[in-house]
Amino acid sequence: MRILNLGAGGFIGSHLTERLLKEKHSVVAVDIHSDKIRELLNHCELTFIEGDIRHPDFQLDKLVKESDLVIDLIAHANPSIYVKSPLEVFRLNFNENLKIAEACVYHKKRLIQFSSCEVYGKTVASFFSDHLTDPEDSVFARFSEDHTNFILGPVKKHRWIYSAAKQLLERVLHAYGLEGQLNYTIIRPFNFIGPKIDYLPDENDGSPRVFSHFMEALLEQKPMKLVDGGAQRRCYTAIEDAIECTYRIIENHGGVCNCEIFNIGSPENEVSIRSLAKLMRKIYHNSYDVPNHTLPEIIEVSGDEFYGKGYEDSDRRIPDITKARTILGWEPECGLEKLLEITMKYYRDIYLENSN
Ligand code: NAD
Ligand code: UGA
């Protein structure tokens, strides 16, 4: 197939591009950056277009027309941006993504849209715990694609603009699907991590996701900061497992993914952010016996302090992956500790290389 991979230079996009080329597809990769796919740029089946989809000269229509399948990964995907520039998030994650979807409608192309587990928002237990017999029951945090209600915070907690923009885009794709105008598949990733996730904070002006903050703290012996106490929980998913599931969605044998939504995540890898910090410290200590290296302290900071006003958090989210299991025969394999070891080694090697 000739596949248009939008956002191919990002974390997920770079791993996906590598897999698509391995599977002998022809890939047209679009991104503002190419560092993460640098080693693939000379591949004979890859055409890299360095471009900004917001630019008026960007030839979206032509690229969609010439492809057999469109994969859309482009978005602002770090919570710091949701708080600092909510309008930017809306413009890119909804307006610009909608143009991609509409080009697919016009040219009758299948679209795989990366959405987010953030559409589910918070759990009932996060604000209603006094009325629940067992607020810790995982039933309150187990989110399934076609049944779970979405719970977002108030408008003035503008972190939720990311979730709302992703949700609205999903609803528009569904509406096009209902009218028979678009064959889409929506993917809701649950905290993928692995080599190439984000960057170490010092390398860039922005603010990456938690793994990179903790990794930088370990390398530079700075404090590991727990936002609002660190009791929030996430299920970390290995990028390799995630790409395997995504590839099965791309194959779409028998059309089983047509107009469907899939969670991709590792329910067994649930961890609180406080435990994540401790686990990363333990792995660092056990794997790298560095003389004179003291492990960083773990401190608490408020969300307002860390991100700015307007931050609120998802307290807990566990993917229900029954659909991916039954329809795609997919099962995540990589456990949390191994996943952290692999990802930490990747960033430690880069850090050492840069400091030599
Ligand atoms: P990422 O930031 O690494 O990748 C996004 C890519 O889009 C970047 O390479 C960026 O340069 C590119 N991009 C941004 N604006 C662009 C523009 N105007 N023109 C061209 N390219 C542009 O993020 P990621 O983690 O790889 O996420 C990919 C997608 O998956 C996003 O839609 C994100 O919301 C979604 N998602 C990811 C996760 C995860 O666990 N990583 C979780 C939930 C949702
Ligand atoms: C992420 C992003 O919204 C998207 O990438 C994506 O949609 C989704 O979740 C996902 O990856 O599935 P979140 O998990 O909140 O959101 O992103 P992180 O920045 O990695 O934060 C995780 C948790 O760690 C949050 O509770 C945050 O407050 C906390 N945190 C973050 C810290 O305690 N310390 C830090 O230094 C950074």
Helices and strands in order:
Layout: E1 2-6, H1 11-22, E2 26-31, E3 46-50, H2 60-65, E4 69-72, H3 79-84, H4 86-107, E5 110-114, H5 125-128, E6 142-143, H6 161-178, E7 184-189, E8 192-193, H7 210-220, E9 224-227, E10 233-235, E11 237-238, H8 239-251, E12 260-264, E13 270-272, H9 273-287, E14 298-301, H10 303-307, E15 318-319, H11 322-328, H12 336-355
Parallel strand pairs: 1-2, 1-4, 2-3, 4-5, 5-7, 6-15, 7-12, 8-11, 9-14
Antiparallel strand pairs: 10-13
Helix pairs in contact: 1-8, 4-6, 9-12
Provide the number of structural domains: 1
Distance between the termini: 43 Å
For this structure, what is the CATH class? Alpha Beta
CATH fold-level name: Rossmann fold
What is the tally of helical segments? 12
Derived structural class: alpha/beta
**Uncertain spans:** none
- Strand/helix succession: EHEEHEHHEHEHEEHEEEHEEHEHEHH
How much is the radius of gyration in Å? 20 Å
The largest sheet is: 7 strands, parallel
Write down the overall geometry: globular
| CATH architecture title | 3-Layer(aba) Sandwich
CATH level-4 homologous superfamily: NAD(P)-binding Rossmann-like Domain
In percent, how much strand structure appears in the residues?
15-25%
Helix content: 25-40%
Compounds present? nicotinamide-adenine-dinucleotide, uridine-5'-diphosphate-glucuronic acid
The count of strands amounts to: 15
- For the biggest β-sheet, the strand order reads 3-2-1-4-5-7-12
Instruction: Round the mean pLDDT to the nearest integer and report it.
Output: 96
